[in-house]
């Protein structure tokens, strides 16, 4: 069905198409059985000591305000991450702010954390219990002078409603956000989050979402702080504001974060570096260019415990999850793996 509708969808402005998708998902009419696959027990895995039916997750950015996560679970995702959520409602940057680079199978966005705010979203989730593992991605409002306080406020407000919380320090669309990759700034942030988690007795794991543009020499210091403050997961990676020179599409120089195929190898290579240094003791979530069983398997063998996608679904539709799972099962059988966990890090 998506292949028939795609020309119409792609004739629309990307944000209009996205809003239409959210409205359609609110109707929630698709049966979950449509997206089932045989042999999915081979894909069962764990994330933050929680059992997942499969390692395919939806990245933050699609369901920014936690409006349709239960409809999205029907597509067969093993877990879903909503957000980025900020303390106060935020409209984001001026439009247009999403651009399809069809020739490159990529997107550029400069959305700027548009969402309904932590108050509305916390009530929404409390009134609509998730049907699977739900992560909440948090960040600061654009006008906030002390960004750390916004992270603390979101953790305090949203922590109990999530299975895990992601600290987004890596979007290129909020000025000063990537300053938290600096070791001193990161320590200040993580120590504050650690204190809140301890004081509130929050059991939910915390993950940190990193930039693909991080310097290799900063990896060891980052891992040191992640271990020190009991961060359980690393998401590798967010969008990049570089890597444009080899792109073909005329929109390649639009300002914003680049996602999709041009990010694939960058994020996979970074996953390998982090996996080697963490020795598999910290969960890694691999993101960037995942649109097939082969690309998912590549990230898993590089060291990712699980993967996430977003741009791939824009180009291939909701059936992408089912297709990836079928391909992964085929790969596992061909390679004589009894479970996907056995493949984690074998090519790192």
Mind telling me the CATH class? Alpha Beta
Overall pLDDT level: 94
Report the sheet-strand fraction. 15-25%
Overall spatial form: globular
Low-confidence parts lasting 5 or more residues at pLDDT below 50? none
Total count of strands: 13
Keywords:
348 residues; alpha/beta; TIM Barrel; 8-stranded parallel barrel; 3-stranded antiparallel beta sheet; 11 helices; 13 strands; 17% strand
Describe this structure in words.
With 348 residues, the protein is α/β, with parallel strands linked by helices. It has one domain (41-343): TIM Barrel (Alpha-Beta Barrel). It has 11 helices and 13 strands. The strands form 3 sheets. It has an 8-stranded parallel β-barrel, surrounded by 4 helices. It has a 3-stranded antiparallel sheet with strand order 5-6-11, with no helix packed on it. The mean pLDDT is 94.
Give me the secondary-structure topology.
Blueprint lengths: L1 H10 L2 H14 L17 E3 L2 E3 L3 E3 L10 H5 L5 E7 L12 E4 L4 E4 L8 H10 L5 E6 L8 H12 L5 E5 L14 H18 L4 E6 L8 H10 L4 E4 L20 E4 L3 H15 L4 E5 L5 H10 L3 E4 L1 H6 L3 H15 L14
Parallel strand pairs: 3-4, 3-13, 4-7, 7-8, 8-9, 9-10, 10-12, 12-13
Antiparallel strand pairs: 1-2, 5-6, 6-11
